[in-house]
Design goal:
With 253 residues, the chain is α/β, with parallel strands linked by helices. Helices cover 43% and strands 17% of the residues.
């Protein structure tokens, strides 16, 4: 007579239990999806955004610990936000602002400065204010892109703005150590921000084009980027690097 034994499944511990994740631009798209996944992994999350109503809706949906409605490109408001945080934080993801596609000869001097510096200035301002509050081994994650790596007259200065981010993130990683700094470079991600660049018909045409041309056979979603962001949070050997997530878009146009 034999007795059968059934192995009980091993329950995995949440990877971010006891940690705090701050999402700068966390009320929609990649920021919100990353907050949702971080919560599922046991983290407390703090959401910021410009729209107070959308921010509160997002916070209720995922059970955020705290919210703050302000413009992250306002240095005084950003400094005040971090000054008022009551405890140590572990990870920060910065998801904005979006790219600007203005033809070069139509740009003013101010628009050129903004296009080239927006992401770097915001990243630097966040780094200055967040670092004193961050636990060693935590990570600051910035968002870049792969779409601008091919020079195209329709992209304006987006290619130049994209090119500066990987060396900036690497240099910042040396400055902030032992806090880690990494760059997530996405292609087209199906978010409300991406949709805002298209008409309804144009958006669906772009989705269909990507479904038929990308090596992965589908459009990259916010959940894909969120999974990468959480991996970067939990793998403490990762710093100073750029992580492409575009489904192969940069190779097929």
């Amino acid at each position: 007579m034999s007795t059968a034994t059934t192995a009980s499944p091993t329950r995995r511990e949440p990877q971010l239990r006891g940690q705090t994740v701050v999402l700068i631009g966390g009320s929609a798209g990649i920021g919100l999806e990353t907050a949702r996944l971080a919560r599922a992994e046991g983290a407390d999350v703090i959401l910021t955004g410009r729209n107070p109503e959308r921010l509160e809706d997002a916070a209720r949906e995922i059970g955020a610990k705290r919210t703050a409605a302000f413009d992250a490109t306002d240095p005084a408001a950003l400094s005040r936000f971090f000054d008022e945080l009551p405890a140590i934080i572990d990870h920060v993801l910065v998801t904005g602002p979006g790219p600007s596609y203005v033809p070069l000869l139509e740009m003013t001097a101010d628009q050129v400065r903004d296009a080239l510096a927006d992401h770097v200035v915001l990243g630097l301002d966040v780094a200055r204010n967040a670092a004193p509050k961050m636990r060693p081994g935590g990570t600051l994650m910035l968002m870049g892109g792969t779409g601008g790596r091919r020079v195209n007259r329709e992209l304006g200065l987006a290619s130049a703005a994209t090119a500066v981010l990987p060396p900036f993130a690497a240099a910042l990683a040396l400055e902030l150590a032992p806090v880690r700094v990494n760059l997530i470079a996405a292609g087209f991600v199906d978010t409300p921000l991406s949709a805002s660049y298209f008409s309804k018909e144009g958006l669906e045409a772009r989705r269909e084009q990507l479904r038929t041309t990308l090596p992965i056979g589908r459009v990259v979603s916010p959940a894909d980027v969120a999974a990468l962001a959480v991996h970067i949070m939990t793998n403490t050997a990762l710093t100073g690097a750029t992580y492409d997530i575009d489904g192969g878009q940069q190779f097929v146009g």
